[in-house]
Every structure is written in C-alpha cells, then in structure tokens.
Amino acid sequence: MTILKTHSWKGRKTLSSQFWYGSFRRDRKKIVTKLNVRIDGTPPASLRSGDPGDAAYERSRVRAELQLEQMIAEARDRQSHVQVLKRIHRLQTGHKLPTLKLEAAYAHWLALKEAPADPDDKTGDAGDADYSERYLSQAESAVGKFLDFVRRKEPTATEVGHITADIGRQYMASRYMRKLSPKTFNNTLTLLRSVFGDLLPEAGLPENPFASVKRRKKPECINRVPFTLEQIERILRVIKEEKHGFVRPIIITALCTAMRRGDCCRWTWDCVNLEENFIAVKAHKTNALVQSIFPLLAEEIRRHLPKRSEYVFPLQAAVFDSNPDAMTHRCEQVLRNAGFSDASGGYCDGGSDLRLKRVKGRGIRRANIRGLNSFRGTWITIALNMGVVPEIVRKITGHTAMEVVLAHYYKPAREDIRRELMKKMPAFFNIGQPAEPASSDGKSLLKAIEAMTHENWESVRGKILAALGDTTPNPSA
User: Fold this and answer.
1) Helices marked H in 338-370
2) Do 380 and 427 sit in the same domain of this protein?
C-alpha cells in the first residue's frame, strides 16, 4: 500500500518527505521504498494515508499506487525467473542453486581471487595474477557505489541473483549522466563486468548484468612528448643542483628503466641485482619488467646504500604514498629550470584555476604533455630509433601488445624521421634533382655522410675525397 512519511515534533505530525512511499512484503520481510511520485494538493489533517484529501492529493495517490503495483509485479517476475532457474539447476545437478547476499558480493569475489587455482595446491598461491592494492580498492569502491544505487532504486533486490541486465544498464546510464570521462566510465564498467562475471556460477546469476552495456568511445588521446638526447643532457645538468636532489633519483630511474611514476618511487631492494647488473620489477599496471642497469642508474642506486628500508628510495616512496602529485610537481620544477616553458601546465592568459572554474563552471585539467612519465616515452622512442628489437622493448615496458607501445609511446621527432629516411632511402631524395657540384662545404659533406649506406659508400667516399681535393686512389679499385 502507499504510505506517507511523517515525523512528530512537539506533539505535531508533519510530512518528512514530499514523495509517496510504498510498503509491501517479500520473503516475510516488510519493504518500504520511495516512489517517484510527488505528493500534490493538500493532504488530510490527520496525515493518515487512508484518509481522503483534496482532488490533487487523491490523483497523486492513484499515480503512486500504480507505480507501486508495477514495482511489485516486476519484483514477482524477477523472483519467478529466479525460481525457474533454481528448479532447472536442481534438476540438472541435484543441488540447490547457490544464493549470495548483495552485501557479501565483494567479499565473496575477493575470496575467489585469493583462492588457489588448484584445490590440491598447498602453496597458497592465488589462482589469478597478484592484484595490486590500488586495483582492489577501485573494485571495492565500484561495487559499493553500485550496491548503494540498487538499495535506492531496487530495494526488492537483496541477492546477487536478483540483479538483472536492466538494473546494470540503469546504473551505467546514471554514471553517464554524471558526465564522467570515457576512461572513468569504461574503467567502472570493466571492474563491474569482472566482478559479476566471476560471481555468475556462485550466485545464481542468469547472465552478466553488465555484458550488454557498451563502452564509451574515447576521445583523441594527447600523448606526452618525448625528450631528445640534447634535452636529456640539459635535464641531467639541472638535477645535479642541490635543490633538485630529492627528485633526482626518480628522474634517473624513469629515464633509465621506462618505469611509470609509482613504480619509480616504490620499487624495492629485492628487485635489484647489482652483481648481475639487472632489475626485475613487478609493475602495477603491466607484467614484470626486466631491465639492464645503466651506469647512470647504478651510480644512483649505490648512493642509497646501505639499505635502510625495503624501498630503494624510502623518502620518495613515503611522499608518493601521501601525495602522488608531489613528485610530478617537483619534476615540473626541474623541467622549468631546464627551459621547458610548458612544463607547469599553466594557462596562456595567466588566469588561475579558480578564475577558470568561475567562468566555465566545471574545470577541466589541462593535458600534461611534458612530465615525469614523458621519460617512459623517451626511453621507448630512443630504443626503437637506435634499432633495439621491438620484442625486447615490449618485454622491458611490460606491454603485451606492440601496438600499444607504437600508438602511445613511440613518438619520433621530425628530424629523427627525416634522418632515418635519408639513411634508408637516399635515392628518393635525389630523384629529379640536379647533381650537386663537388664542394668542400661542411654541410654538403655532412649530408653526404648521412646518406652513406653499405651499398653506396664507395661512390659517396669518392665524392667526399674529390671535394676535399684528395687524389688518394680507392683501395677497393
């Protein structure tokens, strides 16, 4: 039946809500749920649901009763569907269909992840990959928000088996209306699909309620710009200054290993083998990263000996845990001192964040194209330009697909592209061009040397010697 929500104050009853509520019983439990029907007109002085009010009040009561009847019918249909599944399951297996309360959904999923893949395995190793604390925290948050939505919108759904595809679509539609970024929307969808997909056989779910929800198309990605070798030299000179001593080991680690910000700050001593000159880090986003230790990084590691903590850089790890962006801001200071004017991410007109939000309403963070994670793209770009085998680059960076590396990290400069094309395809640069006269000009000689290959080196050598006035005979002649 429909009811009015009231409360008493100084002996007087007043409405505590401007909306109708519905009351019904399910599984011997009384359920009270809010209806999306506002109380119109003048209610009775007694504020009893059964007493008559004016005409507008009675019309709103009828609308509320119709909505309540529809809600009860949907709950019965859902319950009937579950009962059919239970009977089918019992006929097929001889056992009851398992049930799982919504409140226990995340804990049960977490237990599944931590259970051994082999029941006879006595080692206690998890069946799936080791999930980071960050991933598990995000999954718990996503499930918690979804359950809050279900309690508000579908109070009759008390078990995981009651969650339908329609409820899943409604929830993701509500997330879309909050104007979440495509990345946040897709991450939430992926987490919920994973959780409820794993719970399918455990909770009597007929289907994954999020399987039919479409992912949002991501906008064009703004990739970070890698540094050139000359720019790296400038940065290395700047971080030698005492004021940048705190961020220096993080920048050197990022430059020499292609690790991300968090991995650079929180890698541990058990990942380091100075005797065999390599590191093996379990990256939080990708698979294990195996990397040779460059002399620059080895020197920085030895500065932090003897070991004082499980972390190679304990102070930086503590700062990162309390404020991850602090390391990014320190890196931006280094880049500003190295001559990069766009490192801070400031606005062209000098306006503050506060002023921007007042004008635009909802502030949008500007993309950071040069920052700490730019060193990852720098390492990948230089490695591929220098001829390192792509499979080695993929293994070091931890990516499973080379397409990801090429799409998001390999960003050669225009001069690098031109130099490589001139080196590999010199004939194309001379098509339709008049032959250049022999000259001892340094730029012409440099161009000739850059265009030299193992196929044309003899003729190029002859031109260079002629330009220099050297009549020494060609030894290969």
Assistant:
1) 353-360
2) no
Residue 358: both structure tokens together: 């007042």
Determine, yes or no, domain membership for 438.
Answer: yes
Verify that 262 and 363 share a domain, yes or no: yes
Q: How many CB atoms lie within 10 A of CB 34?
A: 14
**Nearest alpha carbon to residue 252 among 322, 325, 312, 308:** 312
pTM over 0.85: no
Poorest-pLDDT segment among 38-47, 140-149, 188-197: 38-47
Angle at 20 between CA 6 and CA 158, to 5 degrees: 100
| Among candidate residues 70, 92, 114, the one where a domain is terminated | 92
DSSP 8-state class, residue 433:
-
Query: Do residue 325 and residue 400 come from a single domain?
Result: yes
CB atoms within 10 A of CB 477: 6
Cα–Cα distance between 253 and 233 in angstroms, integer?
A: 15
3-class secondary structure, 213: coil
Are 293 and 340 within one domain?
Answer: yes
Write the pLDDT tens digit of every residue in 315-361: 999 999 999 889 989 999 999 898 886 544 444 444 333 333 434 44
Do 402 and 308 fall into the same domain?
Answer: yes
Give the tokens for residue 77: 């249909």
Question: Domain of 366?
Answer: 229-412
Token representation of residue 76: 């019965």
CA distance 262 to 317: 8
**C-alpha to C-alpha distance for 197 and 128, rounded to whole angstroms:** 14
